[in-house]
TrEMBL record:
Native organism: Luteibacter anthropi
Keyword Transcription: yes
Keyword flag Glycosyltransferase: no
Gene3D superfamilies: 3.40.190.290, Winged helix-like DNA-binding domain superfamily/Winged helix DNA-binding domain (1.10.10.10)
Lineage, highest ranks first: Bacteria, Pseudomonadati, Pseudomonadota, Gammaproteobacteria, Lysobacterales
GO molecular function: DNA binding; DNA-binding transcription factor activity
Family: Belongs to the LysR transcriptional regulatory family.
One matching Pfam family: HTH_1
Key words, A-Z: DNA-binding, Transcription, Transcription regulation
Domain (HTH lysR-type): residue spans on this chain: 16-63
This protein's name: LysR family transcriptional regulator
Length: 306
């Protein structure tokens, strides 16, 4: 006999009938009609090929075969209920191993300092952070959630949520601008040294774009330096190696300290978003929700809970 969900449903109805002592009381417990309970029991009897209940207008009782069947299945139902309660408990409490694939620059600049506090708040969580260049197969790699900049992959296997929308800035050091002049329009970048950042998806440099009030300029630039690490790019830029494009989040301290100067403030509209990417369409677990709440607080201490 192959298993299907109707068999389990029928067993649940039979159990309610036996425990309550009547079809009517079982119907009230299950939120069904009396006739619906009767049909469910009849379908179960047809499915297993035996009569399970002796019933009259005044009484009902298990047949001998029905009693043996009932005694066999009731422990199984109890195990199912216990397993469901255990699963509910695990999803409601923040515990277990949490494997996160996170953008390395975002981890260093926004999350690393707060990790002791997160682990202290959730002592039953074991946190495993990976910093890879691009998102691979989350399911195969056992990733609970990935934090990545740029548009998330289009796949029915993934769900995503935008956590942050940050500006793209063009920056240079005061020393570079003193030696080579301050460009007043993006088109002048053709005459400047630019530092290119490698797109890990295409293995090519990100194009340089400038957005303002619906207008988009794509500016060709040349370089003697290409990097795949944002921290290295910003240090080289602050050291005077050239002009760079970066995201505002994580760069604020260098700008506030005067080590980097923002160019072209009249072109402020290019944005870059951070997404949380999940390996399924199901709601994330309690430990993932807790981690994302921590991320939102790191981005903006006044942000709402996840």
């Amino acid at each position: 006999m192959s298993f299907d969900g109707r068999l389990l449903s029928g067993v649940a109805v039979l159990t309610a009938v036996v425990e309550s002592g009547s079809f009517r009381r079982a119907a009230a417990v299950l939120g069904m009609s009396d006739s619906g309970v009767g049909r469910a029991v009849a379908r179960l009897e047809t499915r297993v090929g035996i009569r399970l209940l002796d019933r009259t207008t005044r009484s009902l009782a298990l047949t001998e075969e029905g009693r043996r069947f009932y005694e066999r299945v009731v422990p199984g139902l109890a195990d199912i209920e216990e397993a469901a309660e255990e699963l509910l408990s695990s999803t409601a409490s923040v515990r277990g191993k949490l494997r996160v694939d996170v953008d390395p620059f975002f981890l260093r600049t926004k999350l690393a300092d707060g990790l002791p506090g997160f682990l202290g708040t959730y002592p039953e969580v074991e946190l495993d952070l990976l910093t890879r260049q691009s998102v691979s197969d989350l399911v195969i790699d056992g990733i609970d959630v990935a934090l990545r900049f740029g548009e998330p992959p289009v796949s029915s296997s993934y769900a995503s949520r935008q956590l942050l929308d940050t500006r793209v800035l063009t920056v240079a050091s005061p020393g570079y601008l003193e030696r080579h002049g301050h460009p007043v329009h993006p088109a002048e970048l053709a005459h400047h040294a630019c530092i290119h950042f490698r797109n890990p998806t295409t293995d090519r440099a990100f194009p340089w774009e400038f957005h303002s009030k619906g207008e988009i300029l794509t500016i060709p630039t040349s370089t003697r330096l290409m990097v795949s690490d944002v921290t290295a790019m910003l240090r080289a830029c602050a050291g005077g190696a050239g002009i760079a494009q970066t995201i505002e989040v994580g760069t604020e301290d260098l700008i506030e300290a005067g080590q980097l100067v923002v160019l072209f403030p009249e072109w402020p509209d290019e944005r870059f978003s951070l997404y949380a990417i999940y390996p399924s369409q199901y709601d994330p677990s309690a430990r993932v929700r807790a981690f994302l709440e921590f991320v939102l607080k790191a981005i903006n201490p006044s942000s709402e809970r996840y």
